[in-house]
Amino acid sequence: MMINTEWYRIFLHASETLNMTKAAQRLNMTQPSVSYAIKQLEDALGVKLFDRLSKGIVLTEEGHALYDQVRQVFDKLDYAERYMKQLGQLNEGRLRIGANGAIIRDYIVPLLDIFRSQYPNIRVQVSQQKTGQILEQLQQGLLDLGYVYLPVKDAEIQVVDTFVSPYGVVAGKPFAALAEAPLSAAQLAELPLLMLSQGSATRSYIEAWFQSQGVEAAADFELNSLDMLAEFAERGYGAAILPRAFVASKIDEGALLELSMEVPLPDRHVGVAVRKHSSLSLAAEAFLNIQSSRSL
């Protein structure tokens, strides 16, 4: 049964004023229009909602029961309207981002510092994951933005922005002599190599670089985080291929040395991925605007 929702709003005001004329004044309507709407609602529901008295109206038992339900519905609608206004003003909402550790630390955190200062009431959720996991969660609607290494071959994913992440070869002080002249890929492969575990996009990127020069490289240390790779490299256990931004401070301090290569590692391109054909949340749009302004 379809009933004009405006009748319920009129009923609500009539119930609270217990006077058709006062309800009409509240609603900027005529008193006959209010009376007609109440009569239409009573006929549609098949119950009497008001007893008409000489000095006004009173709710019937059925009218009281309906009022309790309608009041709750309109309260929820009022709350929804207020909440939407808060979302529109970015005083409510959430932002869900997925990325790997290096991108989070070196790229996303500085942006989040700005975002949080501008929108302190937005709840931010960041998850550290591999590219494949990020793409899956984007498809499932569990993330708003995913920072992934390119290329991405997924018909359900759209890349809305990109930036470059240069990589370099670093080692600790025991390998200082190797920093005097560029190394070939074959020479680097003879050193103890520190790599991420098999299956990561970064491991595949490094192996592809070696293979492009006819070299098969094996890892002496397989670790699960860039922090561990940097730690072991600093302690002199071998050479690691890491994002330059990730180890820039260690290189500046002299704790790590960057080894020059005859064939430099290609820059890696990072894309900001979203689920195709899905509207971005206002919080995600605001974060991307900050990112764009920082890249100008």
From TrEMBL:
Keyword Cell inner membrane listed: no
Domain HTH lysR-type, residue spans: 3-60
InterPro entries to which the protein is assigned, alphabetical: LysR_HTH_N (IPR000847), LysR_subst-bd (IPR005119), WH-like_DNA-bd_sf (IPR036388), WH_DNA-bd_sf (IPR036390)
Sorted UniProt keywords: DNA-binding, Transcription, Transcription regulation
Record Pfam families: HTH_1 (PF00126), LysR_substrate (PF03466)
PROSITE patterns named among the record's database cross-references: HTH_LYSR
Family according to the record: Belongs to the LysR transcriptional regulatory family.
Protein's name according to its UniProt entry: LysR family transcriptional regulator
UniProt organism field: Paenibacillus cineris
